[in-house]
Specification:
The complex is a heterodimer of chains A (646) and B (101). With 646 residues, chain A is mainly alpha-helical. Chain A has helices at residues 7-21, 28-54, 86-109, 116-135, 139-157, 164-195, 200-210, 216-232, 241-244, 250-259, 264-271, 273-277, 280-303, 307-327, 331-358, 376-390, 396-410, 416-441, 449-454, 460-475, 490-503, 519-546, 548-557, 559-566, 571-618, 625-644, and strands at 63-73, 76-84. Chain A starts with 6 loop residues before the first helix and ends with a helix. Chain B has 101 residues and is an all-alpha fold. Classes of the chains: A mainly alpha (646), B mainly alpha (101). The A-B interface holds A 621-626, 629-630, 633 and B 20, 23-27, 32, 93-94, 96-101.
Chain lengths: 646, 101
């Protein structure tokens, strides 16, 4: 049966071409109609395919369609082909669905921007690249999408390029991502070298035979792929670009830097689960890096004052959770959190966008407060998102986060320490999110009177996407209710065929479920994390609502720690001193000494010497006919004498 | 009376030297041109002399060819000189020093 998978990325591509080729010639209504329509069509078509996929038996849910051969070159053959299976359909649905809502929201948010059509052009190109990334049936095409989203991320972070900080942030994001991409490419080289193919199906089928389990090669390949993931998904050590990426328009932060692109690393690891299951060392690295990121980014978020930066570090922290899930071989839980996170984090970002819109561009929470009565729709939806991310029961974040914590504790790759840090990070999440809410929506307004008059609720085109996302943030978790709470964990069962292969490898003979633990343990852990979260919410309430002087006192009494957190552990400064400055100095040396002095000096010196000699020789050329004739004659005479007198 | 070969050759050498001197000394293009003709004829003279000495007719034929070529060359050469004069209003060879630059 023909499913025409190519239609999904085709719609945004057409939208990109129409808006991009006639940029500046179309009116705003038409531009937004084309852009939203393209993504909307993609969404509805992928929803249709989702139901088609559901109607198939579970084993047959992998549709591969090859459009044409892309690179036929000896043994190296790559197709432009698409693969639709439970994993990619979830990604496609999340990407197109969230993008659709954000596109609509952007009509309102970007309404007065002179770069309106440029914005939507980039946005459609981004959706196209992202769909290529998640639909590709081989690593190379995935890499094309991977680079495509990186490009769009650069373009959109630097969207307001007249601002120096924005264009700098764009460059930073691109360069940091390049570091990850080189790891990704090297990983692909190793895979191709060993397996001789980059097709997902072939690689995963042959890998167990081609690689020694736990061997150096597979560990190196997966670690290199993970380096790519740390770049794209903003993990330690390459997370520094994401907070700066907040220079872009807020819907962009919601779309690219919260809901879709940054999850590409998690998707890639889940897709490569067969390879990762064969490299236990890499799994441990992934879990530790993920947990370290979740924890440290959480602590940084505690002290930030910029509303978007809090959310940015929160995103880094939540992505860390997803990597923890992948690292303990609970890929399904990682993808589950990816989905719920993209709902509530997109909601939170769009909500903060609505706040910033109302505050006329002010992003510093110290000048906000009391917005609850001015922005009721924003407030209520934002509250839902906050409850979801904090992991309050009955909201989506609770189910996915708890699933990860449980797997971090119970999986054979997990450990108690992972759980402890995970719960600590969850408590911090609740704290900084409620701090944000109290500072922004409660208390007295701290803005000046001029800004106060300007306060207004955002238009419907912005609030309706917020409401839809709020609904998704509530119900999104119910597809994955765990067994212990009486559910059937439908979500992970749905993903099972994709993740099945990896879990049936010889290394992973123990079934990765809660086998050896009683349901009582699971309920106890769940309850304790919820209680900790509630306690930290109460703490936030006490510090930022009830007794606001105390938070100031705490800040002064622990000013060293506060500075450390506010300065984001000075990682940027550290990278600046350890990596960037030596490179800059080395480049300066190469430029001023080697290039200008040595190479240019050598070349120019040679040219000067030759020029001087030529000037001397030029005097021979008098330009007078008779001189030439004389010399000519003299030459003949000399030659004759030479011949005759020899 | 048979003129000895040396006399022919001495005359030829003198004619050649006069021609070469004319080319070197003179500034007038026409005179330079005539001097070149003189050198050609000096060569002709020595060819004829050797031809006589060896009692061969080849030299005579060669001289006729040279004279024919010289006539043709004179026509072309004079035409060039006329064109140069029209262009530059002079036939002073020292004025033609474009190569100097």
């Amino acid at each position: 049966m023909e499913y025409s998978l190519y239609l999904i990325p085709l719609f945004p591509l057409v939208g990109f071409l129409i808006n991009g080729l006639f940029i500046g010639k179309l009116n705003k209504k038409f531009v937004s109609f084309i852009a939203c329509g393209a993504v909307g069509l993609s969404f509805f078509y992928s929803a249709h395919l989702f139901f088609e996929l559901l109607s198939l038996p579970a084993e047959a849910r992998a549709i591969e369609e090859i459009l044409f051969v892309w690179i036929p070159s000896g043994q190296f053959n790559v197709n432009i082909g698409f693969l639709l299976d439970p994993l990619s359909i979830i990604m496609v649905m999340v990407v197109t669905g969230v993008s659709f809502l954000i596109h609509i929201y952007s009509i309102g948010y970007m309404h007065d921007d002179p770069g309106f059509s440029r914005y939507f052009t980039y946005l459609n190109l981004f959706v196209f690249s992202m769909l290529i990334l998640v639909l590709a049936n081989n690593y190379l095409l995935m890499f094309v999408g991977w680079e495509g989203v990186g490009l769009c991320s650069y373009l959109l972070i630097g969207f307001w390029f007249e601002k120096k900080s924005a264009s700098d942030a764009g460059k930073k994001a691109f360069i940091v991502n390049r570091i990850g991409d080189f790891g990704f490419l090297l990983g692909l080289f190793i895979i191709f070298w060993q397996v001789g193919s980059l097709d997902f199906a072939t690689v995963f089928e042959k890998a167990p035979a081609m690689f020694a389990v736990g061997g150096t090669l597979i560990t190196a390949a997966t670690l290199l792929l993970f380096l790519g993931a740390t770049g794209k998904s903003a993990q330690i050590p390459l997370f520094v670009w994401l907070p700066d990426a907040m220079e872009g328009p807020t819907p962009v932060s919601a779309l690219i830097h919260a809901a879709t692109m940054v999850t590409a690393g998690v998707y890639m690891i889940a897709r490569s689960n067969v390879l990762y299951m064969m490299a236990p060392t890499t799994l441990a690295v992934v879990a530790i890096v993920g947990m370290a990121t979740a924890f440290f980014a959480g602590t940084i978020a505690l002290a930030q004052n910029d509303i978007k930066r809090v959310l940015a570090y929160s995103t880094v922290s939540q992505l860390g959770y997803m990597f923890v899930a992948c690292g303990v071989a609970a890929f399904g839980a990682g993808i589950f959190h990816l989905m719920t996170h993209s709902f509530f984090k997109a909601l939170l970002f769009l909500g903060s966008g609505s706040v910033i819109h109302a505050m006329a561009g002010q992003q510093d929470m110290r000048y906000m407060g009391g917005l609850k009565k001015h922005l009721p729709a924003t407030y209520w939806t934002f509250m839902v998102g906050t409850l979801a991310i904090a992991g309050i029961p009955l909201f989506s974040g609770f189910f996915s986060k708890d699933e990860i914590l449980w797997k971090a504790f119970s999986s054979q790759y997990g450990s108690t320490w992972l759980w402890v840090f995970g719960v600590a990070a969850a408590a911090m999440t609740a704290f900084y999110m409620f701090r944000l809410v109290y500072l922004t929506f409660y208390g007295e307004g701290r803005m000046d009177s001029h800004a106060k008059e300007h306060l207004h609720e955002s238009p419907k085109v912005m609030t309706i996407p917020l409401m839809l996302l709020a609904v998704l943030s509530i119900v999104g978790g119910y597809v994955g209710i765990p067994h212990v709470l009486g559910g059937i964990n439908y979500f992970e069962n749905f993903l099972e065929p994709v993740l099945h292969a990896g879990q049936n490898l010889p290394v992973a003979t123990h079934v990765l479920t809660s086998g050896s633990y009683s349901t009582g343990t699971e309920l106890l852990l769940m309850a304790s994390s919820v209680i900790l979260v509630l306690l930290s919410i109460i703490l936030a309430w006490y510090l930022y609502r009830k007794n606001t002087d105390l938070s100031g006192k705490l800040r002064t009494s622990m000013s060293g720690l506060h500075k450390l957190l506010l300065g984001k552990y000075f990682v940027d400064e550290l990278y600046g001193a350890v990596i960037i400055r030596p490179i800059v100095n080395g480049s300066l040396f190469l430029w001023k000494i080697v290039d200008v002095f040595l190479i240019d000096g050598l070349i120019n010196g040679l040219a000067v010497v030759i020029g001087d000699i030529s000037t001397g020789l030029r005097t021979v050329q008098t330009g007078r006919l008779r001189t030439y004739a004389t010399i000519f004659l003299a030459g003949v005479v000399v030659l004759l004498l030479f011949v005759l007198l020899r | 009376m048979i003129v000895p070969i040396e006399h022919y050759l001495i005359l030829s050498a003198l004619l050649f030297a006069i021609g070469a001197g004319g080319v070197i000394i003179s500034r007038n293009l026409i005179i330079i041109f005539m001097s070149i003709e003189l050198m050609l004829n000096a060569a002709n003279l020595s060819i004829i002399a050797f031809s006589l000495m060896h009692n061969l007719m080849d030299g005579h034929v060669l001289v006729f060819i040279v004279m024919t070529v010289a006539a043709a060359e004179a026509a072309v050469g004079l035409a060039i000189i006329i064109m140069v004069y029209r262009k530059r209003d002079t036939i002073n060879a020292d004025k033609f020093n474009l190569m100097k630059r």
